[in-house]
Specification:
The chain contains eleven helices and seven strands. The protein is α+β, with helices and mostly antiparallel strands. A four-stranded antiparallel β-sheet has the order 2-3-7-6, with no helix packed on it. The longest helix is centred in the last third of the chain and has 26 residues. It starts with 14 loop residues before the first helix and ends in a 12-residue tail after the last helix.
Protein backbone atom coordinates (compact mmCIF):
# COMPACT_ATOMS: atom_id res chain seq x y z
CA UNK A 1 0.00 0.00 0.00
CA UNK A 2 1.04 3.61 -0.52
CA UNK A 3 2.78 5.45 2.30
CA UNK A 4 0.34 7.39 4.44
CA UNK A 5 0.07 11.10 3.67
CA UNK A 6 -1.57 12.10 6.96
CA UNK A 7 1.75 12.76 8.65
CA UNK A 8 3.10 16.27 8.07
CA UNK A 9 6.76 16.62 9.07
CA UNK A 10 7.55 19.76 11.04
CA UNK A 11 3.94 20.88 11.04
CA UNK A 12 1.79 20.31 14.06
CA UNK A 13 -1.93 20.38 13.46
CA UNK A 14 -4.10 21.86 16.18
CA UNK A 15 -7.17 20.14 17.54
CA UNK A 16 -9.27 22.56 15.49
CA UNK A 17 -7.33 21.64 12.34
CA UNK A 18 -7.87 17.93 12.92
CA UNK A 19 -11.58 18.43 13.69
CA UNK A 20 -11.94 20.54 10.53
CA UNK A 21 -10.21 17.89 8.41
CA UNK A 22 -12.32 15.08 9.89
CA UNK A 23 -15.56 16.99 9.30
CA UNK A 24 -14.57 17.66 5.69
CA UNK A 25 -13.59 14.03 5.16
CA UNK A 26 -16.92 12.79 6.54
CA UNK A 27 -18.99 15.24 4.48
CA UNK A 28 -17.15 14.41 1.28
CA UNK A 29 -17.51 10.67 1.90
CA UNK A 30 -21.27 11.11 2.22
CA UNK A 31 -21.80 13.57 -0.62
CA UNK A 32 -19.32 13.07 -3.47
CA UNK A 33 -21.27 11.70 -6.47
CA UNK A 34 -20.75 7.98 -7.00
CA UNK A 35 -20.38 8.52 -10.75
CA UNK A 36 -18.25 11.23 -12.39
CA UNK A 37 -20.23 14.26 -13.53
CA UNK A 38 -20.46 14.96 -17.27
CA UNK A 39 -17.73 17.22 -18.64
CA UNK A 40 -18.18 20.81 -17.50
CA UNK A 41 -17.33 21.80 -21.08
CA UNK A 42 -20.79 20.66 -22.20
CA UNK A 43 -24.08 22.39 -21.48
CA UNK A 44 -25.41 19.51 -19.36
CA UNK A 45 -22.09 19.05 -17.58
CA UNK A 46 -21.83 22.76 -16.85
CA UNK A 47 -25.24 22.72 -15.16
CA UNK A 48 -24.36 19.55 -13.23
CA UNK A 49 -21.20 21.18 -11.93
CA UNK A 50 -23.14 24.32 -10.99
CA UNK A 51 -25.47 22.10 -8.94
CA UNK A 52 -22.45 20.56 -7.24
CA UNK A 53 -21.14 24.06 -6.42
CA UNK A 54 -24.52 24.92 -4.87
CA UNK A 55 -24.39 21.72 -2.80
CA UNK A 56 -20.92 22.57 -1.56
CA UNK A 57 -22.05 26.10 -0.74
CA UNK A 58 -25.12 24.94 1.18
CA UNK A 59 -22.79 23.04 3.52
CA UNK A 60 -20.28 25.93 3.47
CA UNK A 61 -17.56 23.89 1.80
CA UNK A 62 -17.31 25.88 -1.43
CA UNK A 63 -15.10 28.71 -0.13
CA UNK A 64 -13.81 27.51 3.22
CA UNK A 65 -11.19 30.24 3.61
CA UNK A 66 -13.58 33.13 2.94
CA UNK A 67 -15.27 35.13 5.72
CA UNK A 68 -18.57 33.76 6.93
CA UNK A 69 -20.46 36.80 5.58
CA UNK A 70 -19.63 35.61 2.05
CA UNK A 71 -20.39 31.94 2.61
CA UNK A 72 -17.05 30.74 3.96
CA UNK A 73 -15.88 29.30 7.23
CA UNK A 74 -13.06 31.71 7.93
CA UNK A 75 -10.72 28.71 7.71
CA UNK A 76 -6.98 29.23 8.08
CA UNK A 77 -4.65 28.62 5.18
CA UNK A 78 -3.55 25.36 6.80
CA UNK A 79 -7.18 24.24 6.96
CA UNK A 80 -7.74 25.33 3.37
CA UNK A 81 -4.90 23.08 2.18
CA UNK A 82 -6.19 20.25 4.37
CA UNK A 83 -9.61 20.62 2.75
CA UNK A 84 -8.10 20.57 -0.73
CA UNK A 85 -6.22 17.37 0.09
CA UNK A 86 -9.40 15.75 1.34
CA UNK A 87 -11.33 17.01 -1.68
CA UNK A 88 -9.03 15.34 -4.18
CA UNK A 89 -8.56 12.25 -2.01
CA UNK A 90 -12.35 11.78 -2.13
CA UNK A 91 -12.40 12.02 -5.93
CA UNK A 92 -14.76 15.02 -5.86
CA UNK A 93 -15.72 16.79 -9.12
CA UNK A 94 -13.59 19.50 -10.72
CA UNK A 95 -14.55 23.05 -9.78
CA UNK A 96 -16.41 24.88 -12.56
CA UNK A 97 -16.13 28.02 -10.42
CA UNK A 98 -12.35 27.79 -10.32
CA UNK A 99 -11.65 31.00 -12.27
CA UNK A 100 -13.75 33.03 -9.88
CA UNK A 101 -13.01 31.43 -6.54
CA UNK A 102 -9.32 30.68 -6.93
CA UNK A 103 -8.13 33.39 -9.36
CA UNK A 104 -10.41 36.40 -9.24
CA UNK A 105 -11.58 36.42 -5.65
CA UNK A 106 -8.11 37.09 -4.12
CA UNK A 107 -7.89 40.10 -6.45
CA UNK A 108 -11.37 41.27 -5.43
CA UNK A 109 -10.43 41.01 -1.78
CA UNK A 110 -7.22 42.99 -2.40
CA UNK A 111 -8.40 45.63 -4.88
CA UNK A 112 -12.21 45.53 -4.93
CA UNK A 113 -14.47 47.99 -3.16
CA UNK A 114 -16.84 46.83 -0.44
CA UNK A 115 -19.70 47.26 -2.90
CA UNK A 116 -17.95 45.02 -5.44
CA UNK A 117 -17.22 42.40 -2.81
CA UNK A 118 -20.86 42.38 -1.68
CA UNK A 119 -22.07 42.22 -5.28
CA UNK A 120 -19.77 39.57 -6.72
CA UNK A 121 -18.58 37.23 -3.97
CA UNK A 122 -21.86 35.63 -2.74
CA UNK A 123 -22.99 34.50 -6.19
CA UNK A 124 -19.46 33.28 -6.91
CA UNK A 125 -19.52 31.16 -3.76
CA UNK A 126 -22.79 29.44 -4.67
CA UNK A 127 -21.90 28.86 -8.32
CA UNK A 128 -24.84 30.97 -9.45
CA UNK A 129 -22.46 33.18 -11.45
CA UNK A 130 -19.50 31.49 -13.13
CA UNK A 131 -16.59 33.67 -14.23
CA UNK A 132 -14.46 33.33 -17.37
CA UNK A 133 -10.85 34.35 -17.61
CA UNK A 134 -10.12 36.63 -20.59
CA UNK A 135 -6.39 37.30 -20.73
CA UNK A 136 -4.95 36.05 -24.02
CA UNK A 137 -5.35 37.81 -27.33
CA UNK A 138 -4.25 36.89 -30.86
CA UNK A 139 -0.48 37.54 -30.95
CA UNK A 140 -0.60 38.33 -27.23
CA UNK A 141 -0.73 35.21 -25.13
CA UNK A 142 1.91 34.74 -22.49
CA UNK A 143 3.30 38.16 -23.42
CA UNK A 144 0.25 39.73 -21.85
CA UNK A 145 1.72 43.24 -21.88
CA UNK A 146 1.49 43.33 -25.68
CA UNK A 147 -2.32 43.19 -25.64
CA UNK A 148 -4.20 45.49 -28.04
CA UNK A 149 -7.83 45.40 -26.90
CA UNK A 150 -8.88 48.89 -25.85
CA UNK A 151 -10.99 50.60 -23.21
CA UNK A 152 -12.01 54.12 -24.28
CA UNK A 153 -13.30 56.57 -21.71
CA UNK A 154 -16.98 57.58 -22.01
CA UNK A 155 -17.59 60.36 -19.50
CA UNK A 156 -21.16 60.92 -20.65
CA UNK A 157 -22.19 57.46 -19.51
CA UNK A 158 -19.69 57.08 -16.69
CA UNK A 159 -17.73 54.12 -17.92
CA UNK A 160 -15.61 52.54 -20.64
CA UNK A 161 -16.18 51.27 -24.17
CA UNK A 162 -14.38 48.02 -24.98
CA UNK A 163 -13.16 46.95 -28.42
CA UNK A 164 -10.91 44.13 -29.54
CA UNK A 165 -10.61 40.38 -29.23
CA UNK A 166 -9.71 37.90 -26.52
CA UNK A 167 -9.01 34.24 -27.23
CA UNK A 168 -8.63 31.01 -25.27
CA UNK A 169 -11.01 32.37 -22.68
CA UNK A 170 -11.54 29.47 -20.30
CA UNK A 171 -15.14 28.67 -19.26
CA UNK A 172 -16.45 31.49 -21.52
CA UNK A 173 -18.63 29.16 -23.61
CA UNK A 174 -21.13 28.80 -20.76
CA UNK A 175 -20.02 31.27 -18.10
CA UNK A 176 -21.82 34.45 -17.08
CA UNK A 177 -19.15 37.10 -16.51
CA UNK A 178 -15.56 37.68 -17.58
CA UNK A 179 -12.51 39.61 -16.39
CA UNK A 180 -9.49 40.87 -18.28
CA UNK A 181 -7.09 43.69 -19.11
CA UNK A 182 -7.64 46.45 -21.68
CA UNK A 183 -5.43 49.30 -22.88
CA UNK A 184 -7.08 52.47 -21.59
CA UNK A 185 -4.28 54.89 -22.52
CA UNK A 186 -3.74 54.79 -26.30
CA UNK A 187 -0.30 56.41 -25.94
CA UNK A 188 0.97 53.84 -23.46
CA UNK A 189 3.05 50.74 -24.12
CA UNK A 190 3.60 47.41 -22.46
CA UNK A 191 2.66 47.32 -18.76
CA UNK A 192 1.48 50.92 -18.57
CA UNK A 193 -1.93 52.43 -19.25
CA UNK A 194 -3.92 49.25 -18.69
CA UNK A 195 -7.20 48.87 -16.84
CA UNK A 196 -8.69 45.73 -15.27
CA UNK A 197 -12.36 45.39 -16.19
CA UNK A 198 -15.12 42.89 -15.61
CA UNK A 199 -18.08 42.44 -17.93
CA UNK A 200 -21.19 40.30 -18.49
CA UNK A 201 -20.74 37.77 -21.28
CA UNK A 202 -24.21 38.57 -22.64
CA UNK A 203 -23.47 42.30 -22.99
CA UNK A 204 -24.59 44.15 -26.11
CA UNK A 205 -21.78 44.10 -28.68
CA UNK A 206 -20.00 41.08 -27.18
CA UNK A 207 -19.82 37.92 -29.31
CA UNK A 208 -18.79 34.65 -27.63
CA UNK A 209 -17.53 32.05 -30.11
CA UNK A 210 -16.76 28.59 -28.59
CA UNK A 211 -13.45 26.89 -29.44
CA UNK A 212 -13.44 23.09 -29.58
CA UNK A 213 -10.68 21.30 -27.67
CA UNK A 214 -8.91 18.08 -28.64
CA UNK A 215 -11.91 16.14 -27.34
CA UNK A 216 -14.31 18.27 -29.38
CA UNK A 217 -15.84 20.00 -26.37
CA UNK A 218 -15.92 23.76 -26.00
CA UNK A 219 -13.82 24.39 -22.92
CA UNK A 220 -12.66 27.73 -24.32
CA UNK A 221 -14.09 30.55 -26.38
CA UNK A 222 -12.91 33.65 -28.19
CA UNK A 223 -14.54 36.96 -27.38
CA UNK A 224 -15.15 39.79 -29.83
CA UNK A 225 -15.81 43.24 -28.34
CA UNK A 226 -17.62 45.77 -30.53
CA UNK A 227 -18.30 48.95 -28.52
CA UNK A 228 -19.17 47.03 -25.34
CA UNK A 229 -20.00 49.49 -22.55
CA UNK A 230 -18.78 48.76 -19.01
CA UNK A 231 -19.72 51.13 -16.14
CA UNK A 232 -17.12 52.47 -13.72
CA UNK A 233 -18.60 50.22 -11.05
CA UNK A 234 -17.17 47.20 -12.88
CA UNK A 235 -13.57 48.45 -12.96
CA UNK A 236 -11.42 46.48 -10.53
CA UNK A 237 -8.70 48.66 -9.01
CA UNK A 238 -7.62 52.05 -10.31
CA UNK A 239 -7.91 52.83 -14.04
CA UNK A 240 -4.49 52.74 -15.67
CA UNK A 241 -3.09 50.53 -12.91
CA UNK A 242 -4.42 47.29 -14.32
CA UNK A 243 -1.06 45.57 -14.57
CA UNK A 244 -0.53 45.60 -10.82
CA UNK A 245 -4.06 44.27 -10.31
CA UNK A 246 -3.56 41.56 -12.91
CA UNK A 247 -0.32 40.38 -11.33
CA UNK A 248 -2.26 39.56 -8.19
CA UNK A 249 -4.50 37.29 -10.25
CA UNK A 250 -1.72 35.62 -12.22
CA UNK A 251 0.32 35.08 -9.05
CA UNK A 252 -2.60 33.15 -7.60
CA UNK A 253 -2.89 31.12 -10.79
CA UNK A 254 0.76 30.14 -11.01
CA UNK A 255 1.36 29.63 -7.36
CA UNK A 256 -0.47 28.02 -4.56
CA UNK A 257 -4.13 28.58 -5.30
CA UNK A 258 -4.81 26.82 -8.57
CA UNK A 259 -2.92 23.60 -8.20
CA UNK A 260 -3.55 22.07 -4.85
CA UNK A 261 -1.04 19.30 -4.14
CA UNK A 262 -3.99 17.09 -3.34
CA UNK A 263 -4.74 16.75 -7.04
CA UNK A 264 -1.29 15.39 -7.85
CA UNK A 265 -1.07 13.23 -4.74
CA UNK A 266 -4.42 11.61 -5.56
CA UNK A 267 -3.31 11.00 -9.16
CA UNK A 268 0.03 9.56 -8.00
CA UNK A 269 -1.78 7.19 -5.65
CA UNK A 270 -4.07 6.09 -8.49
CA UNK A 271 -1.00 5.56 -10.68
CA UNK A 272 0.59 3.40 -8.00
CA UNK A 273 -2.58 1.32 -7.78
CA UNK A 274 -2.72 1.05 -11.58
CA UNK A 275 0.88 -0.16 -11.69
CA UNK A 276 0.13 -2.84 -9.10
CA UNK A 277 -3.02 -3.91 -10.94
CA UNK A 278 -0.85 -4.54 -14.01
CA UNK A 279 1.46 -6.86 -12.11
CA UNK A 280 3.89 -4.19 -10.89
CA UNK A 281 6.13 -4.39 -13.99
CA UNK A 282 9.70 -3.46 -13.14
CA UNK A 283 10.07 -1.59 -16.45
CA UNK A 284 7.77 1.12 -15.09
CA UNK A 285 8.89 1.06 -11.48
CA UNK A 286 11.24 4.06 -11.69
CA UNK A 287 8.69 6.22 -13.52
CA UNK A 288 5.98 5.40 -11.00
CA UNK A 289 8.36 6.15 -8.14
CA UNK A 290 9.41 9.44 -9.77
CA UNK A 291 5.77 10.47 -10.17
CA UNK A 292 4.96 9.64 -6.57
CA UNK A 293 8.06 11.43 -5.30
CA UNK A 294 7.26 14.44 -7.48
CA UNK A 295 3.76 14.68 -6.05
CA UNK A 296 5.09 14.31 -2.52
CA UNK A 297 7.81 16.91 -3.15
CA UNK A 298 5.20 19.31 -4.45
CA UNK A 299 3.04 18.65 -1.43
CA UNK A 300 5.88 19.36 0.98
CA UNK A 301 6.87 22.47 -0.98
CA UNK A 302 3.29 23.70 -0.76
CA UNK A 303 3.25 23.23 2.99
CA UNK A 304 6.50 25.18 3.09
CA UNK A 305 4.81 27.94 1.10
CA UNK A 306 1.89 27.89 3.51
CA UNK A 307 4.28 28.24 6.42
CA UNK A 308 5.87 31.23 4.71
CA UNK A 309 2.57 32.90 3.92
CA UNK A 310 1.20 32.57 7.43
CA UNK A 311 4.38 34.17 8.75
CA UNK A 312 4.07 37.15 6.42
CA UNK A 313 6.07 36.21 3.35
CA UNK A 314 4.67 36.41 -0.18
CA UNK A 315 4.89 33.86 -2.98
CA UNK A 316 6.59 36.36 -5.28
CA UNK A 317 8.44 35.14 -8.34
CA UNK A 318 8.76 31.66 -6.84
CA UNK A 319 5.27 31.08 -8.23
CA UNK A 320 6.92 30.82 -11.67
CA UNK A 321 9.17 27.94 -10.59
CA UNK A 322 6.15 26.39 -8.92
CA UNK A 323 4.14 26.57 -12.14
CA UNK A 324 6.86 24.88 -14.23
CA UNK A 325 7.14 22.07 -11.69
CA UNK A 326 3.46 21.15 -11.33
CA UNK A 327 2.70 21.44 -15.03
CA UNK A 328 5.56 19.13 -16.05
CA UNK A 329 4.79 16.74 -13.21
CA UNK A 330 1.19 16.46 -14.43
CA UNK A 331 2.26 15.53 -17.98
CA UNK A 332 4.84 12.96 -16.80
CA UNK A 333 2.39 11.36 -14.39
CA UNK A 334 -0.30 10.86 -17.01
CA UNK A 335 2.13 9.76 -19.73
CA UNK A 336 3.35 7.04 -17.37
CA UNK A 337 -0.21 5.84 -16.79
CA UNK A 338 -0.96 5.65 -20.53
CA UNK A 339 2.31 3.90 -21.36
CA UNK A 340 1.73 1.44 -18.55
CA UNK A 341 -1.64 0.46 -20.02
CA UNK A 342 -0.21 -0.15 -23.48
CA UNK A 343 -2.83 -0.32 -26.27
CA UNK A 344 -5.57 -0.16 -23.63
CA UNK A 345 -4.35 3.35 -22.81
CA UNK A 346 -5.46 4.58 -26.21
CA UNK A 347 -9.11 4.07 -25.24
CA UNK A 348 -10.89 7.05 -23.71
CA UNK A 349 -10.78 6.92 -19.91
CA UNK A 350 -10.20 9.28 -16.96
CA UNK A 351 -6.47 8.78 -17.64
CA UNK A 352 -6.73 9.94 -21.25
CA UNK A 353 -8.97 12.81 -20.17
CA UNK A 354 -6.40 13.80 -17.56
CA UNK A 355 -3.57 13.46 -20.09
CA UNK A 356 -5.27 15.76 -22.60
CA UNK A 357 -5.82 18.33 -19.89
CA UNK A 358 -2.23 18.02 -18.66
CA UNK A 359 -0.93 18.97 -22.11
CA UNK A 360 -2.38 22.44 -21.64
CA UNK A 361 -0.56 22.94 -18.32
CA UNK A 362 2.79 24.07 -19.79
CA UNK A 363 0.88 26.61 -21.91
CA UNK A 364 -1.79 28.28 -19.78
CA UNK A 365 -1.07 30.53 -16.80
CA UNK A 366 1.88 31.84 -18.80
CA UNK A 367 3.89 29.39 -20.88
CA UNK A 368 6.71 27.54 -19.21
CA UNK A 369 9.15 29.33 -21.52
CA UNK A 370 7.99 32.65 -20.06
CA UNK A 371 8.17 31.24 -16.52
CA UNK A 372 11.72 30.04 -17.09
CA UNK A 373 12.67 33.54 -18.22
CA UNK A 374 11.19 34.94 -15.01
CA UNK A 375 13.10 32.41 -12.91
CA UNK A 376 16.33 33.17 -14.78
CA UNK A 377 16.04 36.96 -14.65
CA UNK A 378 14.09 37.72 -11.48
CA UNK A 379 15.26 34.94 -9.16
CA UNK A 380 18.70 33.92 -10.45
CA UNK A 381 19.71 37.39 -11.70
CA UNK A 382 20.86 36.12 -15.08
CA UNK A 383 21.12 38.53 -18.06
CA UNK A 384 17.84 39.48 -19.69
CA UNK A 385 16.84 37.69 -22.84
CA UNK A 386 17.05 40.07 -25.84
CA UNK A 387 13.63 41.55 -26.53
CA UNK A 388 12.14 43.62 -29.31
CA UNK A 389 11.72 47.38 -29.29
CA UNK A 390 9.40 48.67 -26.59
CA UNK A 391 9.82 45.58 -24.39
Amino acid sequence: MSPQRDELPNLELTEDDIAFRDEARAWLAANVPAEPLPSMDTADGFRAHQEWEARLAAARWSVVSWPQEYGGRGASMVQWVLFEEEYYRAGAPGRVSQNGIFLLSPTIYEFGTKEQQDRWLPSMATGEVIWAQAWSEPESGSDLASLRSTATRDDSRGGWVLNGQKTWSSRASYAHRGFGLFRSDPDSTRHHGLTYLTFPLDADGLLVRPIAQLDGEAGFAELFFDDVFVPDADVLGEPGQGWAVAMSTTGSERGLSLRSPGRFCAAADRLTALWRSHGAPTAFRDRVVDAWLGAEAYRLYTWGTVTGLVTGRSIGFASSANKVFWSELDVALHETALDLQGPEGERFSPWTDGYLFSLSGPIYAGTNEIQRNIVAERILGLPREPRGAGA
